[in-house]
Amino acid sequence: MRTDTTRPPADTAVRGTALSVRGLRKSYRARGAASATGSRQVAAVDGLDLDVERGEIFAVLGPNGAGKTTTVEILEGFRERDAGDVSVLGEDPARAGRAWRARIGVVQQDSRDLGELTVAEMVGTTARYYPRPRDPAEVIDAVGLTEHARKRTRALSGGQRRRLDVALGIVGRPELLFLDEPTTGFDPQARRSFWDLVTSLRDDGATILLTTHYLEEAAYLADRVVVIDRGQAVASGEPDGLGGPHARTPLVTWLDDGERRSLRTDRPTGAVARIAHEVAAPDGEIPGLTVTRPTLEDVYLDLIGDGDPAGNEEQR
Q1: What is the arithmetic mean of pLDDT over 24-38?
Q2: Which GO MF terms are attached to this record (predicted)?
Q3: Could you say which DSSP state residue 189 is in?
Q4: Fewer CB atoms inside 10 A, N or C side of the chain?
């Protein structure tokens, strides 16, 4: 996959780009902040550039308040922007019509529905809004809800509810699917099953834009990621290459005369051999030896400083 996210805008039909953003900006009035000259504006998105290629899973990461939700809502056409150029499936979401909306799927973090309807009724009713929907029964089976098709939505568990949300998002056969914190509240087994579902959607040709605060989820699913902080992209690329060539350099630590020492090196085996020659105990063991390779979470935390990857709903 290409890792260049700053190339100039291109014709999506020609270059295979599903989504292109240049200089995106959105500000809000600060709560309780007013002066003699008017209300103070706070930038939620501050000059953001993005490209998402067709057929990839693209993850948007960032701490609460980074601007993830605002960005995604602009891309979905649910929120107006202050400035910038946005192309989603070749159209500007702010002016796109019903035909464009039928080409996207949206799975929001907090969904609302008619709880008295059954799963089958919800999916079947939603399918009628699209010109070329998938077969509702096949969609229900694809998300693992066939046994619950006659169950009322209010009686579903959290994991089943999110699977229904995905069913509603994909029944219209979208070219581009937005998933906003899709596995919040899942247990580990349900989360893994959901990952398999998302991967299968990508393999079937869908483009997926995912926001998540689970770094393991981004590492497992995403072809590329972008880290947003204070409304700006601070890093982007493939998960294993995020942060540059030295971000994942292994770290060797050990005890020497009771003092913790460390060495970052791309040749940890040779380093351990040298350390063993210098400080190994009579039995050959190196006191307190650890060799670790920074994870995506480690790199992420370095990029955003003291931010927190976990959290609840995005504060815009």
Answers
A1: 73
A2: ATP binding
A3: H
A4: N
- The answer to whether the beta carbons of residues 136 and 143 sit under 8 Å apart is no
Structure tokens at 99: 């035909």
* Domain assignment present for 314: no
Q: What is the pLDDT of residue 37?
A: 56
pLDDT digits (tens, 9 = 90+) for 242-257: 777 677 788 899 998 8
pLDDT at 2: 34
CA angle 191, 197, 198 (to 5 degrees): 90
Which residue pairs from 296-300 have beta carbons closer than 8 angstroms and sit at least 24 positions apart in sequence?
296/215, 296/216, 296/218, 296/219, 296/225, 296/239, 296/242, 297/215, 297/216, 299/242, 299/243, 299/247, 299/248, 300/61, 300/215, 300/227, 300/242
205 exposure class (CB count in 10 Å sphere: 0-12, 13-18, 19+)? exposed
- Looking at the structure, do residues 102 and 184 belong to the same domain, yes or no? yes
The number of angstroms, rounded, from the C-alpha of 208 to the middle of its chain's C-alpha atoms is 9
What residues are paired with 42 via a beta bridge? 28
DSSP one-letter code for 53:
E
**Two structure tokens written together for 60:** 């948007």
| Any domain includes 283 | yes
What's the pTM?
0.76
What is the gyration radius of the CA atoms in the chain, in angstroms? 23
Cα–Cα distance measured from residue 240 to residue 229, given in angstroms and rounded to the nearest whole number: 20
Helix (H, G, I), strand (E, B) or coil at 128: coil
Mark whether 117 and 88 lie in a shared domain. yes
Q: Check which CATH number belongs to the domain holding 81 and give it.
A: 3.40.50.300
Q: What are phi and psi of 271, to 5 degrees?
A: -65, -40
In the block, tokens 């959607």 appear at 201
- Residues 233, 211 within the same domain: yes
Q: How many helices (H) and strands (E) does the chain have?
A: 10, 12
d(CA 43, CA 211): 20
C-alpha span between 2 and 139 (Å, rounded) = 32
